[in-house]
Amino acid sequence: MDPLVRNNVKVAGGGQQAIIFAHGFGCDQHMWRYVAPAFEPTHRVVLFDHVGNGGSHLGAWDADKYGSLEGYAQDVLEICRALEIRDAVFVGHSVSAMIGLIAAKRDPGALSRLVLVGPSPCYIDDGDYVGGFARGDIEELLQFMDSNYLGWSSMLAPQIMRNVDRPELAEELTNSFCRTDPEIAKHFARVTFLSDNRDDLEDVRTPCLILQCSDDVIAPEPVGRYVQSRLPGSELVLMKATGHCPNLSAPEETIAAIRQWL
Amino acid sequence: MALTGDMRPGPSHPMLPDTTELYEEAPCGYLTTLPDGEIARVNRTFRRWTGYSDEELVGRRFRSLLTLPGQIYHDTHFAPLLQMQGEVKEIAFDIVVAGGERLPSLVNITQRRNPDGRPAFNLVTVFNASDRRRYEKELLAAREAAREAAEALQQLNRELAERVAGEVDERLRAEAALRQAQKMEAIGQLTGGVAHDFNNLLTVIIGSLDGMNRLLQKMPETPEIARIRRFRDAAFQGAERAATLTSRLLAFARRQPLDPKPVDANKLIAGLSDMLRRTLGETIALETAAAADLWNAHADPNELERAIVNLAVNARDAMPEGGKLTIETGNVRFDDTCVDGPAEPVPSGQYAMIAVSDSGCGMDAETLQHVFEPFFTTKEAGKGTGLGLSQVYGFVRQSGGHVRIYSEPGLGTTVKLYLPRHMEAAAVEAATAPRPTRVAGGDETILVVEDHDELRELSRGILVELGYDVLEAHDGPSALDRLRDRPDIDLLFTDVVLPGGMNGRELADAARRIAPDLKLLYTTGYTRNAIVHNGRLDPGVALINKPFTYHGLAAKIRQVLDGTG
User: Fold this and answer.
1) Fewer CB in 10 Å around end: N or C, chain B?
2) What is d(CA A22, CA A3) in angstroms, rounded to the nearest whole number?
3) CA dihedral in degrees (A241, A245, A251, A256; nearest 10)?
4) Which residue in the set A141, A149, A215 is minimally distant from B92, CB to CB?
5) CA distances for B167 relative to B157, B173, B174, B219, B334, angstroms
6) Which whole number is the average pLDDT over B527-541?
7) How confident is the model over B27-52, as a mean pLDDT?
């Protein structure tokens, strides 16, 4: 299948160098809407959805292939080949930071610079390593997703529609972004939060910029510092932005940090 | 639009609540948060639900009120959605209240922006969703139960399908076994019938040649007599070969009289090994692996020897380039689970096993289907009779045992004989010792009972020649008449199968009532019912197989009369 269709690839801008923006768990390429346009005058801007998210082709989803980050990294490289992209800047948010690292190790010529936004190679605490979560927390997250409205509604909406006693439940959904098949979302959550990719930090030769938010409950500052310590020559920027999505909550700061490093 | 009269808000009417009270006491929590999520204002309903004071809530991030999974979901879904679409509706969060309990809630949020487009603050409404969450949980549980029921049903269907397939396989195997058994039985009936009739003819031929021989000995030696003698020898050899052939056919048909005894197969094989080595030749190595404490088999040792020799000859022919023949023994218990193979069924129990394996060319499945059938051979024309494995099969089956054959083209063949264990502690005979034969006649009185005129005449001739006083009868009733007339009769020599409604055994029983000391010798081409129970001789019964020779009959008659047979 054409990777450009499979991954709902959108290309804009007209620079020499390509800049690829990759979304993390929970959303799709829309989360770059305040950041990506800023690079269109200088770069060839590439946006895409990971398979199973946003406008990607759900028929291409495969539990085995996407049972590890390797499958997602493979897709990134296929997109590069389809667009004949070399020496691109790859901006990966959250889990896509690690996906970019894996892809760059497989084909260093395709991705020559990496911007890691809120990266975490391992979310689970392990001995001296502090990832921020216990395994039980992640299991609880998966249960939580089951009962959450976004996932819940698409599973139970048809039954609710027929429930004449509770007509208010038939109200149309308005959370239009970030909707996906709830089982795929749970699978992606499992792969994201239960993977241990610390070994993939070895022998990375690609220059990396780490953008670390304040008060990020998902990728806390010690994790960002751990990643920097494992990537010689990488640069860590502590942002004023709080939370896990500076690309949405602080787009100007994010743009500036990337520009300055480039 | 101007509001009129009583509907005007605010304190202008002292009986109406003002908007502050509506805000504070609304049936939902109201919060105002800053762009980074910090709580700026919160109503009384929310404070009451959570048990937190105004001071505890203001300045704190809304996210921090959530459970850890809720915090993850907040940062990966809720906050990004708010940034992208300006509002998020009905997200199901659990809020951790002051006492540590969880308040199931539905959260809506709307973003307000400054004139320059920057986020200014958020309006958050929180609904107590305890009832709804319970309802959702019930729905989810019902969905899960339905899924499990569907899975259980599928599993049941799969198991049913497997069981049906298993039953069908089982039935097909049983039918195949039955077909094989019926086929072998039919071939056996046909073979046995032909062999029996043929045997009677052979007895006449051999007896006549014997008589011719005795006459020739009294004639002067002339060139003509010498030629006649050569013709006689050729005819005799042909008749002997024919007799061997019919005995093999009878063996396959399970109609040969067997004389089962406790047999130590290890000793029997050891006794055979010199002969086997000569048979196999120099290029084939013979190995034996004798099991210690091997059970005695209950079988006819002569036939067992023939079976092993037949297998060795087949193995030799399968290894023209040389190889190895291995004979192993062992004790085997068949239980109900392993006796129902594709071959014919075998009763469960204890068996002494003898396995003969070669490293030869092996056989394919098609060939294996037919190996036990008489005259089936894979050898070149003239090289084999096709009766070797038939003898093995008939003998083992008639002995209450079982044959299994395993073969792979190019790898070799193993034939396993399972003979029933002999359960009585008894003197073990490794193999029958060669029987001493002596030609001795006598003067006793013998009654010959035979419906076949030529055969009766032949027997009479031999016995008269040996000096006996011979009486004849063609069936049971006439034989009994003779006995009543002549109480001095010493021996009754009778065919087993007689016409006239009385078989040889019934005749013998009746005769013994007339003359209790009467000696008995049976003869038969085959014996199915009267003498041989399941192919075995009754203890103490003497028998001579047709076709018999002059010397053979002479010796047997003498043995019976002397009480040594």
Assistant:
1) N
2) 15
3) 70
4) A149
5) 15, 10, 10, 76, 22
6) 52
7) 94
Distance from CA of B95 to the nearest CA of A (A): 13
Structure-token match 């490093």, residue found:
A261
- CATH of residue A162's domain is 3.40.50.1820
Give yes or no for B80 touching A (CB within 8 A): yes
Task: Kindly list the distances between the CA atom of residue B525 and the CA atoms of B265, B375, B408, in Å, as whole numbers in the listed order.
Answer: 28, 21, 39
Q: Can you tell me the distance from the alpha carbon of A197 to that of B327, in angstroms, rounded to the nearest whole number?
A: 62
Gap between the Cα atoms of A97 and A216, Å rounded: 15
Dihedral angle computed from the Cα positions of residues B473, B477, B483 and B489, in that order, rounded to the nearest 10 degrees: 40
> Which DSSP category does B291 fall into?
P
Q: Count of residues for chain B?
A: 565
Range(s) of the domain holding residue A222: 3-261
Find the helix packing angle between B130-217 and B550-562, rounded to 10°.
100
A-chain residues near B61 (CB < 8 A)? 215
Domain count, chain A: 1
Q: Which residue do the tokens 């809120």 mark?
A: A118
Cα separation, B562 vs B552, in Å, equals: 15
3-state secondary structure of B545: strand
Q: Rounded to whole angstroms, what are the CA distances from B319 to B272, B282, B367, B409?
A: 20, 12, 17, 12
- What's the CA gap between A227 and B297, in Å, rounded? 79
**A35, HSE (Cβ side, Cα atoms, 13 Å):** 30
Backbone angles phi, psi at B108, to 5 degrees: -115, 145
Only one residue has tokens 């043995």, namely B559
Strand-pairing partners, residue B490, are none
Task: Match 């990020």 to its residue by tokens.
Answer: A216
CA dist A46 and A25 (Å) reads 18
Inter-chain touch A242–B36, beta carbons under 8 Å: yes
- Among B362, B413, B369, B416, smallest CA distance to B392 is for B416
**Tokens (6 digits) for B30:** 């109201």
A219 touches chain B (CB under 8 A): no
ipTM of the complex: 0.81
The 10s digit of each residue's pLDDT in A85-142 is 999 999 999 999 999 999 999 999 999 999 999 999 999 998 889 888 888 888 888 7
Contact check, Cβ <8 Å, A249/B71: no
